[in-house]
Task: structure prediction
Amino acid sequence: VQLQASGGGLVQPGGSLRLSCAASGFTLDYYAIGWFRQAPGQEREGVACHSISEGSKYYPNNEKERFTISRDDAKNMVFLQMNSLKYEDTAVYYCARSAFPCGEVLVPSHFAPWGPGTLVTVSS
Result:
């Protein structure tokens, strides 16, 4: 069972990135998928969560104006489109699955396993 995040990189403030999460070893259909991020010296925080199938989407930090989570169960992939990026979005971004439904608060301990993440750096 593995979830591999990719698509990070260096982007200027105001720019966009699309992160991808490839799931392997299991079928995505039965799990909620969350995106988290962790900046240096800070705790891991939830960014977005997509319930199973065409279910609800949650953005705990109220970032739905800038971030969009989507999933393609046929391809076992989940995506995070990030627009209007800010310096404070700099972090390692992770995707993880949960057998729990998504909620307004994403609890990292409800999600597993964790892959190595992908680094997003917003800098001019």
Notes: Strands lie at 2-6, 9-11, 17-24, 32-38, 45-50, 57-58, 67-72, 77-82, 91-98, 118-122. The chain has no helices and ten strands. The CA atoms of residues 92 and 100 lie 23 Å apart. The first strand starts at residue 2 and ends at 6.
